[in-house]
Amino acid sequence: MQVLSRPDPTIAVVLPCYNEEQTIGAVVRGFRDALPQAAIYVYDNNSSDLTALQARAAGAIVVREPRQGKGNVVRRMFADVDADIYIMADGDGTYDPHDAPQLINALVTERVDMVVGTRRGVTDDAGRAGHAFGNSIFNLLYRSLFGRDFTDIFSGYRVFSRRFVKSFPAVSTGFEIETEMSVHASMLRIPVCEMTLDYGRRPEGSQSKLSTFRDGAKILWMFAMLMMETRPARFFGALSAVFLGVSGVFAIPVLYEYALTGLVPRMPTWILSMGLLSLSMIMMVAGLILDSVARGRAEQKRIHYLSLAPAHGVPLQDNAAVAPALPLSRAG
Fold it and tell me: Per the UniProt record, which residue ranges are transmembrane (predicted)?
């Protein structure tokens, strides 16, 4: 009886890029050396320099995405590219391409759908002090709102299964896309794990595209929107409590005066208090109704996720003995 061997998984490296002329060539060559069997795609997001030319010269397949923003690029990459395993990294040279085989090995051996390469020492130096502080605050906020699956939600070095990529809605348009990926995994309880890796620095003359305040505000807004969509009872419950508290602040003096005199001389204040109380009740009811809708949406997403075939293939034998030496945490 002939035993048929399972084919090796197809691997795609996807690199979103914007004005990375100085680094993209070395990044592509690094992935070519680490994963010679992989197809390497560089998605150029309206670069004004020679990013596309340098990537093509290094052997990458270059695609232009005219809609500005990393989220738009990721949505296009996930829609265009078909593979069993996807490696996503930045084109700025801060992630080591030679860590990719270990991340792939973790994906296969741990039987998860996403491996996040958490950045060692990122809170010590993330380009600017503001970035480091923001990383710490947003990671703490994420764990308090959505769960403790991740310790570095902003890492751009990730490996995905086809099942994750083709079930991920990718609503975000900018740098908040990694936050959306993390929330998607946490809400559907998709199996994930983390692997701690060294995080490099940009070379001289290369500048970060992040803006501490602008992108921080976008990420905070994304937190609020994702909270409203995935946990509306908690989101609208918090708003209801705020309106209820403010209503009480205005109502208590009026009620106290009524108890003493039997009169309500400050009628506008009482009307305002009752209006705020009504808004509080509306928020509470809206939260309960939308929570039922959100549960239905989550079930539909889960069913779609399960309708896709799980990852197949075998670990990369050359790296199987190396991967366990790196810190690994699992969730899901």
Answer: 235-256, 268-290
CB burial of residue 7 (10 Å; 0-12, 13-18, 19+): exposed
DSSP helix/strand/coil, 203: coil
Helix (H) or strand (E) holding 59: none
- Residues 270 and 264: beta-carbon distance below 8 Å: yes
Structure pTM?
0.80
Residue 81 confidence (pLDDT): 95
Helix (H) or strand (E) holding 262: none
Q: Which long-range contacts (C-beta less than 8 Å, at least 24 apart) are formed by 163-166?
A: 163/113, 163/305, 163/308, 163/309, 163/310, 163/311, 164/113, 164/114, 164/190, 164/305, 165/78, 165/86, 166/78, 166/308
Instruction: Indicate whether 150 pLDDT > 70.
Output: yes
Rounded Cα distance between 79 and 85, Å, is 14
Pinpoint the alpha helices (H) of 65-176: 70-80, 100-109, 129-146, 162-167
Q: Is 149 helix (H, G, I), strand (E, B) or coil?
A: coil
Q: Quick one: pLDDT at residue 217?
A: 82
User: What's residue 172's pLDDT?
Assistant: 83
pLDDT tops 90 at residue 103: yes
- DSSP class of 332: -
